[in-house]
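Supplementary Note 3. Input sequence used for the single-chain structure prediction.
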Amino acid sequence: MRRFFFDFREADDRYPDTVGTDFANVEEAYLEAFKAAQEMWGELLKQRRDPRRCSFEVRNEGGDGLFVLPFQEVLDCCRIRRAVPLERTFEELSATHNYARRVSNEFVQQIRATHQALEQSRELLQRVGVYFSRTSA
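The predicted structure, written as discrete structure tokens, is reproduced below.
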């Protein structure tokens, strides 16, 4: 177990956690911070304080900052996400697949054209080299 400290920040005011709490890992500490932010949200509103201006700054025993959890994340996770119809998802996937195939084919054509141009350049350089070797001899 490692000890994590949850410093509470509200706008410019910071209230350091001097006790800390033990957790197995950072993920557990994050989940606990999120749960605490959810619980504090309503209390802050009752006190007519804006929870969106609050955050937890979580650090380890050495004082190293591990992460910041803005209370705004509590609100963001509550927003309703509209499901995308399956037909639309399939259409988008199909369109993306077709686009990728077309771009891939164009890329292969460009590589072939580049190889041909390089081969022609090599042949020209060989001819020029042979020409210069004949004229200088």
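The longest strand covers residues 2-10. Residues 2-78 form one domain.
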